[in-house]
Amino acid sequence: MTALDAAYADRYARARSWRGQGGTVVGYVGADVPVELVTAAGALPVRLSGRPGRPLGHALEYLGAGVDAATLSLFAGLLDEAPPLDLLLVSHDSEASLQLFYALREIRRLGLEPHLPPVWLVDVLHLPHRSTAAYNLVRLRELRRRLERFVGAAIDDDALAAAAAAHDEVRAARRALAVLRGPGHRALTGVEALTLVGAGSALPVDEYLPLLRGALGELAGREPRPGVPLLLTGSAHDEPGVYRSLEDDGWLVVGEDHDWGDGAGEPPPAPPTLDGLAEWYQSRTVTEPPAAAVARTGAHHVLSYVRTHDDAPLWDFRAVAAAVPVPAVLLAAQEYGAVDVAAVRGDGPR
Hints:
Blueprint: H1 2-9, H2 13-20, E1 25-29, H3 35-40, E2 44-47, H4 57-63, H5 69-81, E3 87-91, H6 95-110, E4 119-122, H7 130-151, H8 157-180, H9 190-198, H10 205-220, E5 228-234, H11 241-248, E6 251-256, H12 274-283, H13 290-297, E7 301-307, H14 317-323, E8 328-334, H15 341-345
Parallel strand pairs: 1-2, 1-3, 3-4, 5-6, 5-7, 7-8
Helix pairs in contact: 1-9, 4-5, 7-12, 8-10
Pfam family, one: HGD-D
InterPro entries: FldB/FldC_alpha/beta (IPR010327)
């Protein structure tokens, strides 16, 4: 767990050493980027994140104030901190990510920030249609060819199958982590869960998997963590500030449905082929039916946390509240990394 804590705290530490040894580092934004292809190409995939309190500087000038602050903070890190990246992949997982891609592409075209790496869009769609599956397969074939040219080596079927199998093993370990957060265990806090999962987006898969399995072994015999069990929905959390504030106030975050979480709601493993990956990413979701998530986690309350300029979760709250057998609270217009704990309390911890 100590090694995973360190990787989470400095998510570019391994990228710097990887590059120093002549390797290629591919940064990515959003969970729809098929990291299996990056791994199969022999490159290190590193997911970018924001940091509350980071000065926004030129990022605010380029994108404006009407974009989710997590995306603005991520953008500011790219502009001002020059992370060790050779290539950046941006998925079409949200409008904020798409705006980020367009801004980066235009900035590079104009030569305004010469230190930025090349940026490509990964346009994976999620409609339940055969035409969508065909479209996604074309996009993944295109990404495969471009990665092959970029790294100067072919991505053969055996390498792709091995990478897909390795990433599926990671997902299985994350599901085991979700069990340890559930009833009868409560072996780790939400902050710890977010850390253990997030570290995996900064390490090579073959280094991360044994560390995560080791952490599962360490956690198996732990005494239950204290706190009122809380299920979190709404905006994603790429850093632990909100979790820490909630747990300092007496809650215990036992599950979430955002793509930085433990992935308990993800579909079964993908077939280890490009066609299989295209279908898996088409159907990929981290959202369980709300009542099923409450039953699995044993949550006593549900919190829908919604950041300013990330309004999509607002549309879901009424249906979520109607579906769950426990109290549900909507907390809207929250600042990135912060939470109004007094408004969450209700009949929870004091």
